[in-house]
Amino acid sequence: MEAQHQSASGQAQNCTDQGRQPRFKLEVEITVISHTCGRLKGYTVDISELGISAMLNIEVPVGEVVELNFDVPLGPVAIYAMVRQRSAFRYGFQFIASNCMREVIKPTCLQLAMEKSLFGGI
Questions:
Q1: If pLDDT is split at 50, 70 and 90, which confidence band does 120 have?
Q2: In CATH, 23-119 is 1.10.760.10
């Protein structure tokens, strides 16, 4: 019972922490591969270490796990993510933990943070 409580607390903490992650403007093409909708093209809006938002013109079900393919300054990214929210054409995706998060996404966010501080958010 104690382990279940700790697990639930950890999940709640993760959800809370996600909202506190700094987001950085990132406008690149993105391909979303969905089991229900096929291959979709769109554009990213911003990125954090835990997720990314994108503009898509075809509806993807909230809760579906999709594959995302996009480029960041450090190279191409192919990662699985869950569709967490939708507001009109804007979608929020939560990354599913992978080596890509550690090796590409986290360093990209650090680089974008440095650029933002150096150039004053330009």
A1: low
A2: no
